[in-house]
UniProtKB/TrEMBL annotation, chain A:
<dbReference type="GO" id="GO:0043436">
    <property type="term" value="P:oxoacid metabolic process"/>
</dbReference>
<keyword id="KW-0408">Iron</keyword>
<dbReference type="GO" id="GO:0046872">
    <property type="term" value="F:metal ion binding"/>
</dbReference>
<protein>
    <recommendedName>
        <fullName>Aconitase/3-isopropylmalate dehydratase large subunit alpha/beta/alpha domain-containing protein</fullName>
    </recommendedName>
</protein>
<dbReference type="Pfam" id="PF00330">
    <property type="entry name" value="Aconitase"/>
</dbReference>
<feature type="domain" description="Aconitase/3-isopropylmalate dehydratase large subunit alpha/beta/alpha">
    <location>
        <begin position="354"/>
        <end position="491"/>
    </location>
</feature>
<keyword id="KW-0004">4Fe-4S</keyword>
<dbReference type="GO" id="GO:0008652">
    <property type="term" value="P:amino acid biosynthetic process"/>
</dbReference>
<dbReference type="GO" id="GO:0003861">
    <property type="term" value="F:3-isopropylmalate dehydratase activity"/>
</dbReference>
From TrEMBL, chain B:
<dbReference type="InterPro" id="IPR015928">
    <property type="entry name" value="Aconitase/3IPM_dehydase_swvl"/>
</dbReference>
<comment type="similarity">
    <text>Belongs to the LeuD family. LeuD type 2 subfamily.</text>
</comment>
<dbReference type="GO" id="GO:0009570">
    <property type="term" value="C:chloroplast stroma"/>
</dbReference>
<dbReference type="InterPro" id="IPR033940">
    <property type="entry name" value="IPMI_Swivel"/>
</dbReference>
<dbReference type="Pfam" id="PF00694">
    <property type="entry name" value="Aconitase_C"/>
</dbReference>
<dbReference type="InterPro" id="IPR000573">
    <property type="entry name" value="AconitaseA/IPMdHydase_ssu_swvl"/>
</dbReference>
<dbReference type="InterPro" id="IPR050075">
    <property type="entry name" value="LeuD"/>
</dbReference>
<dbReference type="GO" id="GO:0019761">
    <property type="term" value="P:glucosinolate biosynthetic process"/>
</dbReference>
<keyword id="KW-0456">Lyase</keyword>
Amino acid sequence: MASSLLSPSFTSFLRTKKDLSFSALSSQRCPKGVPRRIRCAVAAPQRQPSTTGSVRTAMTMTEKILARASEKAQLSPGDNVWVNIDILMTHDVCGPGSIGIFKREFGEDAKVWDREKVVIIPDHYIFTSDERANRNVDILRDFCHEQNIKYFYDIKDLSNFKVNPDYKGVCHVALAQEGHCRPGEVLLGTDSHTCTAGAFGQFATGIGNTDAGFVLGTGKLLLKVPPTLRFVLDGEMPDYLLSKDLILQIIGEISVAGATYKAMEFVGTTVESLTMEERMTLCNMVVEAGGKNGVVPADSTTFKYLEGKTSMPYEPVYSDQQARFLSEYRFDVSKLEPVVAKPHSPDNRALARECKDVKIDRVYIGSCTGGKTEDFLAAAKVFLASGKTVKVPTFLVPATQKVWMDLYSIPVPGSGGKTCSQIFEEAGCDTPASPSCGACLGGPKDTYARMNEPKVCVSTTNRNFPGRMGHKEGQIYLASPYTAAASALTGYVTDPREFLQ
Amino acid sequence: MALFSGTATVVPRNLALTSSAKLCVVRSSSPRFLSYLGKAGFGNRVALSLSTVRAESSACLSGSGSGSGSGSFHGLCYVVGDNIDTDQIIPAEYLTLVPSKPDEYEKLGSYAMVGLPASYANRFIQPGHTKTNYSILIAGANFGCGSSREHAPVALGASGVSAVVAHSYARIFFRNSVATGEVYPLESQLRLCEECTTGDVVTIELGLNRFINHTTGKEYLLKPIGDAGPVIEAGGIFAYARKTGMIPSR
């Protein structure tokens, strides 16, 4: 199983949801496995009904999170409520505009509503000589100093990211690694992939500059409660599949607008067996189905990941047994095959093996979707199993500084102690680049690995609309890190089973 | 669709004007102009006249009172298909432009829809121009999908687009359009992208939820914009909130 390989100590958490709740309860009483600060959502009689689960009408976990954050006992899909925001994240592309609106509307001397709840992460256009892009990071820095923002992950020396200890990289991965993603909370960000944080059992969604400007001033936002689509993924995950295959499968099923305005809740034995990073991949791409947010119930995997990352108390919530879902989709994951999304839409699904005649020019492994440590470990596993070298340029862009360091320090299982970076070098890949959003969204012309010519690329990123990685006529095949690595080895879109079996 | 429903009572007072003059609607549609449209030949000459009318109209809202959403738009339409994502509306390389800076706002407008593939023969903005001749954009399903960049509705608004008429929208684009008040994100009952051709002369009558294609002589029903209408008419959520007393006026 992929996840057990990547995290050998992990044991599957195959219980019913009821059991999950009890697990949280017992761990509160007996704080060996889970930190004491996790207050249980099930047995907390002093709390409002919406947080205890003892409600008159059953709710989904998305409804419960929004109910608590809006101080209501009960919410239904379609309700418009003012929601208290736990964390607002912004970055160098939308931060300056959000700050501009905040100042215009609240005044030049206005203060943000809570300097500890605003997280500012430069990540998009960092390693570029584009003056306006550089200026935008300066705007963020000035604002953070002026407002005394507690969490600002700054970069000053662009020549070497490693001399910038505060610099993290891709915001959605950094948010998780720095402990800003917590069960039961509401996280908004000026980036559509903010939904990634739903992996932690929280409500997380992307907003625009104007809404962000409003949140900066008030700490609140008017949100409409979404109905929930439920995705039940059961069965043992074959060892040639990754979470990316699951979400591409789902988007192919429901289309790029199939979840518009809706929450997507992922449950089932497969989801319970996934690591946090794999759950993040799942939730990351709900926006590619139009989803407002994605959510995975928090469990022992979540709590374990959060140990040592946050000292904030948090309270997970879970969907009631009788909660109403707009519809339910069931997948037997053991029967699925590796898939890709063909140009130019994330729902243009095909089996990887059906595309074996598609000649490619390059492979890109990176981004919030496919640039996490486990994504690189997965790619390294394929290179290691093949013992061959890549046939096309293969670009590696770690999401964050932590991921970059992992590539140079974590031994790849079964390699006799080699790191990912050694395996990538032996396979003939490009040296891992400085962590950032990189060429996932094209960016300034001098962005590393940007598609400046109409090439064909297999990419572990999230979008393949025309022009997404730079050139309008470029063709992007979205794929898992396994499939991306296998394709690099052949120069064609390739099913990873060719190397993993 | 009713994004802001049931949250505020409308007390129209102290209309706050936003920085963007083009948010204005042609209030109580001019009969003179409509009749002119009705029999004109719709060449480039008309397009010029239209832009003149647009320019005149941009001052008209300043004196108006409540947001009944009863205005109308007239102009040439530009037609795109399904799933036009924000990278096609405004490619990522232009996101270094900060929409809240007036000069960069204008620049964003000049790049609107530049990400459309070469299969779109008519350019949305003519070479050497910074504004579009097409004040109404017609799209298929899921318009504005992809990233949450507010630059997308801003670029359209800054380029001179008043309204988008799509079969459906991606959520964040719709929300950003309302929050900024940059463009009216209207929904059509039918797939108007198959009923209209780029360059057709069209009219939108908001109060009647009516879409008229003068070139083909056909009329269509739009879905009501609902409570989002007054927010856009006011110029976005901040202007609306001030106008209705939700937040103090400055």
